[in-house]
Amino acid sequence: MGRNNERNIKKHNDKLHKEQDKVKAAKVLRKEKLKQIVKKFNENNTSESK
Predict the structure, then answer these.
(1) Where is this region: Disordered (predicted)?
(2) Cα 2 off chain centre by
(3) Which residues contact 1 (CB under 8 A, 6 or more apart)?
(4) What ranges do the domains of the chain cover?
(5) CA separation (Å) from 50 to 42, 43, 45, 46, 47?
(6) Ramachandran sector of residue 38 (left: φ over 0; alpha: ψ -120 to 50; beta: rest)
(7) Band of the pLDDT at 2, cuts 50, 70, 90?
(8) Which pairs with CB-CB distance under 8 Å and at least 24 residues apart come from 7-13?
(9) For position 3, what pLDDT does the model report?
(10) What is the pLDDT of residue 50?
(11) Alpha carbon distances (Å) from 30 to 4, 22, 26, 41
(12) In this model, does residue 13 exceed pLDDT 90?
């Protein structure tokens, strides 16, 4: 990236925000998967203990 002109700054910010969005989406996905695993685990434990 050469000079700090508007186009280059915008391109850089777009790239940065895209990466940040990827990280956020991955975090949310992990949380959802963990919730499902915990839910399934709890269902198995309650059915076994009865």
Answers:
(1) 1-21
(2) 32
(3) 8, 11, 12
(4) 1-50
(5) 13, 11, 9, 6, 6
(6) alpha
(7) low
(8) none
(9) 78
(10) 60
(11) 37, 12, 6, 16
(12) yes
